[in-house]
Design brief:
Length: 671
């Protein structure tokens, strides 16, 4: 089954054979196939070691050039051999040539294949020939015919699909592996051919059924119910609302009502709270935590990085400690004694609010009475980790409620496919006083000009960020870049205090730098992407992002959200080095033109695919293999309707379909 579903990424047409003369003419525009007898085989050493083979037929001669070759290839193309070659023809120093063509040893009358030749996604050390042989054997295996047999009645399929002219699954898969010579190659490559449509529909149908079942299972589980009423008098929630220095926006109040409604249900909440950077998600999460604590339960807040968890800790401490709430802080970097003390507070129930990183889902952590888990930047956690907090914190009888938060909006197609079991709340307005951010795109050659502008900015009493990139995924190189920029800017800006923060600093050192920046003791903060989330300094209204072409959509959008938090007009400068790739040019242009998180999320989806946005890649399991969420969006609604129909009327077919497509992977869709 696995081999049968290892479908080709493209095809080569080896069904047509041209004379060498025809191939020289046609092969300048696209790949051509020809054959001939080897009349010369030379190993040359100018300018580097290479093998040049010359073949001829009755019409012309053609050179084949190999810059990398093995002794077995020299033997295969010995003088007098008859070979068939395929590749693009170009004009070389010694006449027409193919560089590294595909070569097959044949006789002059070896028949041509009847179908297009599939080219498969391959791993190192496994040849295309080996994959083709294994796939062809698999297609002839009777057990495969049985596992791919059509079990949906013809009448049902014609009702589920508006124009039912797709092949059955076995026919579709066989066709994709062995398309005939006259197949519509364009439709095959674009994955819009009816054979592809059948495979895509089946895969989407399995996913939608699995999500809908997960939704039903969740509603069958027991969770603690929390009254919608705010505790009068000295309750934590009432106290929090009283000490907040601002009123909730209409959007915050609306989503808080939606969350309160979920917490009152007897089954676990599974809600995603999304809102742009700075829209006030943390306040809503704090209200939900207060609501749960008021009724005798614990609340936990989990963030993917220590600096973000720390920001939550400091903010919640400021709000909750005056109200007498006991808070536990738990991260991997704590000393053994501190960790043990935090775990004891959590297990005894003394800690009402628990804040930390992945450390919260370790085996050694046992909650006394957890009612709510808040997971911030949920896409940064792997699928397994999100499942872990659901499964570990629930007792045999009760599961805790889950609130996930994300500043990266979820594109509609992603919500329909991967978040079908999630209720989504959107904070779609910024707090009053938040000003739009002007984004400028500047060449790195204008760096001195940028530094001069930065001097004028700081002279007005305002603060700024200077962000350095991650280079080749290396923390060491990233650190060097930040240190170099820090030293250069310290020299260029005498009279202003420049600070440096990066991932290698200890927690207390990081906290000290951030506190000094917040207090305006540091005017310019040079940082790596550790400040991507959770930093709130209203007086910092300028951000310079160095080598912006190396950052993704979501990262720049997150970083840009660190400014625009005060009353001053805010600016974000994206400084880039040339040459720019087309993708980087488009990305910077989009970010300059819009600050709409949903537009940016759609572009991000088309660039990176769903795996990275969901955190699914961290789990090591691909989610949808054959469906492109943007190209095939119309299929999603079709699969949703079909899933509803099958779950209502054909339960026996549902089990067979899930087993065929997902097996144990269905568990991941519950996260």
């Amino acid at each position: 089954m696995a081999l049968a579903l290892h479908l080709p990424s493209r095809y080569e047409d080896e069904t047509e054979l041209l004379s060498i003369e025809e191939a020289i003419h046609q092969g300048r525009f696209s790949s051509a196939q020809t054959q001939g007898v080897v009349i010369r085989n030379q190993v040359l050493f100018r300018p580097r070691r290479q093998m040049v083979v010359t073949i001829e037929d009755e019409t012309e001669t053609l050179n084949l050039r190999f810059l990398n070759f093995y002794p077995s290839q020299q033997k295969q193309m010995a003088v007098g051999s008859h070979i068939r070659v395929r590749g693009e023809v170009r004009e070389g120093f010694q006449g027409s040539e193919m560089v590294h063509p595909t070569v097959k040893a044949v006789s002059s009358d070896t028949p041509l294949p009847a179908s297009l030749t599939p080219v498969y996604p391959a791993t190192a050390g496994v040849s295309q020939a080996a994959i083709r042989k294994a796939v062809n054997l698999a297609l002839r295996d009777p057990s495969l015919q049985e596992s791919l047999a059509e079990f949906f009645p013809h009448q049902l399929m014609s009702e589920l699909l508006p124009s039912y002219d797709w092949p059955n699954l076995m026919e579709a898969i066989t066709y994709l592996h062995q398309p005939p010579a006259d197949a519509n190659t364009q439709a095959l490559l674009e994955r819009t051919h009816p054979a592809w449509r059948r495979v895509q529909f089946e895969e989407l149908l399995a996913q939608q059924i699995s999500l809908k079942r997960a939704h039903a299972i969740r509603r069958g589980r027991q969770a603690p119910t929390f009254s919608k009423e705010i505790k009068k008098g000295l309750g934590i929630e009432a106290g929090l609302l009283a000490v907040l220095p601002f009123k909730l926006t209409a959007a915050q109040a609306r989503v808080w009502l939606e969350i309160g409604h979920d917490l009152a249900q007897a089954f676990p909440m599974n809600r995603l709270l999304q809102g742009d950077v700075g829209s006030g998600k943390t306040v809503v999460a704090a209200l939900a935590a207060a609501h749960v604590m008021d009724q005798g339960y614990q609340a936990a807040v989990m963030a993917p990085t220590e600096i973000l968890a720390e920001q939550h800790y400091l903010k919640m401490k400021e709000w909750f400690e005056p109200l007498g709430v006991k808070i536990a802080w738990l991260t991997g970097s704590l000393k053994a004694k501190e960790k043990r003390l935090a775990q004891e507070m959590i297990e005894s129930g003394q800690a009402q609010l628990i804040i930390g990183t992945h450390a919260l889902i370790q085996e050694s952590v046992r909650f006394a009475k957890l009612g709510l888990a808040v997971i911030d930047e949920q896409h940064r956690f792997g699928v397994r980790q999100r499942l872990e907090i659901q499964q570990r914190v629930g007792s045999e009888l009760f599961y805790c409620h889950q609130l996930m938060m994300s500043a990266t909006p979820i594109p509609r197609t992603l919500a329909m496919t991967y978040y079908a079991d999630l209720d989504v709340s959107v904070i779609d307005e910024l707090p009053p006083g938040r000003k739009p951010i002007t984004t400028k795109v500047v060449k790195a050659s204008r760096r001195e000009e940028v530094i001069s502008g930065l001097h004028s900015w700081l002279a007005k009493g305002l603060q700024a960020y200077w962000v350095c990139p991650l280079i080749e995924e290396s923390e060491v190189l990233q650190l060097q870049t930040a240190v170099e920029s820090f030293e250069q800017l310290t020299q260029a800006l005498p009279g202003f205090k420049v600070g440096l923060v990066h991932g290698r600093l200890k927690s207390d050192e990081k906290a000290a730098v951030m506190a000094a920046f917040k207090a305006n003791e540091i005017q310019l903060l040079v940082a790596t992407t550790v400040i991507e989330v959770g930093v709130d300094v209203p007086n910092a209204a300028l951000m310079v992002i160095e080598h912006a072409e190396r950052f993704g959509y979501a990262q720049i959008h997150q970083l840009r959200g660190r400014v625009g938090r005060g009353s001053a007009d805010s600016v974000c400068i994206l400084m880039y080095a040339e040459p720019l790739s087309m993708a980087a040019k488009e990305r910077l242009q989009t970010l300059r033109e819009t600050s709409d998180g949903f537009v940016i999320a759609e572009r991000d989806l088309s660039l990176r695919g769903p795996g990275e946005l969901l955190g699914a890649k961290q789990s090591g399991d691909a989610m949808l293999r054959f469906v492109d969420l943007q190209r095939d969006a119309w299929l999603i609604e079709l699969a949703q309707k079909a899933a509803d129909r099958l779950l209502a009327d054909h339960r026996e077919l549902v089990e067979r379909h899930l087993e065929r497509w997902l097996g144990s992977r269905a568990e991941f869709l519950k996260a």
